[in-house]
Amino acid sequence: MSDSGDEHDNTGNDIGSHSSGATVRRLQLGAHLRALRQSKGISREQAGYVIRGSESKISRMELGRVSFKERDVVDLLKLYGVDDQAEHRRVLTMVREANAPSWWQAYGDVLDTWFQNYLDLEQAAELIRTYEIQFVPGLLQTDAYARAVIKLGHEDDGPEEVDRRAKLRMARKQVLERPEAPRLWAVLDEAVLRRPIGGRDVLRGQIEYLLGICDSPRVRLQVMPFDSGGHAAAGGAFSILRFPHEKLPDVVYIEHLTNGLYLERREEVDQYAAAIGRLFIEAERPNRTPEILRGILAEMDARP
């Protein structure tokens, strides 16, 4: 996890390993620069001054949330006492790899800047644990359901903007089809499966899709039933992302109406990890999910 002084950071292409590789490189490079700074007892404020930036810029760099300028990295290496030329070359190679374009840039016209970081992290993750109380997770949405959700949040968008946003959301789902696809473990509040987003036919199609996805070895889906009463995460939805490199910290992501909150402090991440662990225990077992989904479909058929 990040050191105790780090703060919260609110901030038609195929998706492939190149994109996720660049994201991982940014995270690795940021973690490496942070370790070098801490080993010398240098504050982020001091480091920011050297690169003609701010403390918050150093924080964003160390979190892997921004692109890296070679000049800035060279100046930081000098400040941190790195004289070995081979190490210089290795780090600058990481800079070039970290600055490779992200897959979502083709959709930049309809993508909120604060969500761009999450898309990068999602592509780099090996495990995504999520709890949802309002909507089906974006990675599991059908096109029709996604369009209905998009229209709720972007009422002023015309058909072209809605179409672009829907294509972006469908493109995100390709991450689950990669050979090195992350594992997705989701707990859905029962209300998610009964709220008729887009109308009954759209909801039916979405539930049928979830029923099919239950067979995926990469997806584990659980339902938190109404009769469970209070539970471990009554405060709202969140996701925890884990990466395939032990030096990279887990990240908690909480989405609000107009921004996203990213948490990386160990004590905060540990609280959310404990909460989702309790949710996994309190929710219905994964092998019960198909039965629950079929039951909801049967109830829908029985209603006029």
UniProtKB/TrEMBL annotation:
UniProt-listed SUPFAM superfamilies: lambda repressor-like DNA-binding domains (SSF47413)
Segments of skewed composition (Polar residues): 12-21
Signal peptide interval: none
InterPro entries (alphabetical): Cro/C1-type_HTH (IPR001387), DUF5753 (IPR043917), Lambda_DNA-bd_dom_sf (IPR010982)
Source taxon at top rank: Bacteria
GO molecular function, one term: DNA binding
Chain residue ranges for the region called Disordered: 1-21
Pfam families listed in its UniProt record: DUF5753 (PF19054), HTH_31 (PF13560)
Annotated ranges, domain HTH cro/C1-type: 33-88
Feature: compositional bias, Basic and acidic residues: 1-11
PROSITE patterns listed in its UniProt record: HTH_CROC1
Protein name stated in the entry: Helix-turn-helix domain-containing protein
Species, as recorded: Actinoplanes derwentensis
